[in-house]
Amino acid sequence: MKSSDLFSRAKTLMPGGVSSPVRAIKPYPFYVERAAGSHLTTVDGADLVDCCLGYGPLILGHAHPGVREAIGRQLDKGWLYGTPSPLEIDLAELITGDHPGIDMIRFVSSGSEATMAAIRLARGYTGKQDIIKVEGGFHGAHDAVLVKAGSGATTLGVPDSAGVLADLVAHTRQVPYNDPEALETLLAGNDDVAAFILEPIMGNIGPVLPDDDYLADVREITAAYDVLLILDEVITGYRVGIGGAEVLYGVKPDIATFGKIIGGGLPIGAFGGRSDIMELVAPAGPVYQAGTFSGNPVSLAAGSAALRYLHEHPEIYRRLDDATRAIGEVAADAGRGSFVRIGSAFKHFFRDPAPRNYREVKECDTEAFGRFWKAMLDAGVFLPPSQFETNFLSAAHTERDIEQIADAYGSCLFA
Ligand SMILES: *Cc1c(COP(=O)(O)O)cnc(C)c1O
Q1: What is the domain extent for residue 53?
Q2: CB-CB contact of 117 with 289 (8 Å)
């Protein structure tokens, strides 16, 4: 059955026909028959180079043999125990070993769950009520972070979704990215802030990169006001290198959240931090957090295999950095918009110069992006279908794939 027919059926069964909103490509999304390495094969018979990669988790590409083998080995031993397994110690040691700021960790089932718990933990630890997030920052789909960007640094949040209580998001304040003064001003006038949560690199509208001293300033300001710093490394963790943004920029969080890559492509999330903070999590402490599928053995096995592979092949990061540089050179020649990249994450913004925050990102020409996106798909390259999502490369992308992407960028940007 073709994608158009499948989508007609899906629309009667699932709201918008999809299981997550960004997948609702117009007029209908393509359905995937199978995926291997850097390629997706659709039910319509198209073969696409994938630069979406499940929105980030698949840094080793689809169906990576090592990860697949680890999953297979685990399946032979069962896939849910309801009791601890040695696997969680293994992955916990890997992640804490790679992140100097993280002494202890709790595994959950998604990035959303991780940030939800991290915020609760920050409130439990500090005894304070408010949180600050960055305008346009994405931390999953739970109430406290579904907040529309306000008009100024100190505005109260308003709900970004029906069904979210205004009373609740009144405790979520927002500041623009790359604006340490706005953060300091807000903190100087509010002594009830538990935490500042941010994506160190804005990945869900970007990548939008931090100015040179931004993260160091953020660390200094939050420490000065006794506010916990939550780094949301769900995208950046193991994407910008081993140790994520924490190590790349040398900024130590009080709490960090993870997901995506650490599960090797299977569902996972985690939050971790300083042990005096993490010791407050139940059952060690009074901040409640629990989950049937937390520490799922198959996700842990896949995650450990993926992270071990990255440790054994650090050259992947350098190769992919070279690859996005090469694509960027082609994009620059096209002479419009701005190409932004960091390591294996990249994006062409239909705005020049490159945006530094959410308000600037919103100035992008989304219609031009839509035409570009469609042309790229016709050229056999699948980019995330939004001006506001990051493109990724994986270790499975071959030199030929990278040439194809660069060529397509050239012809589609010039079009
Ligand atoms: C994807 C993402 C999340 C949410 O993770 P899910 O596993 O989709 O719940 C949270 N924070 C950031 C920065 C993300 O990119």
Answers
A1: 31-63+314-414
A2: yes
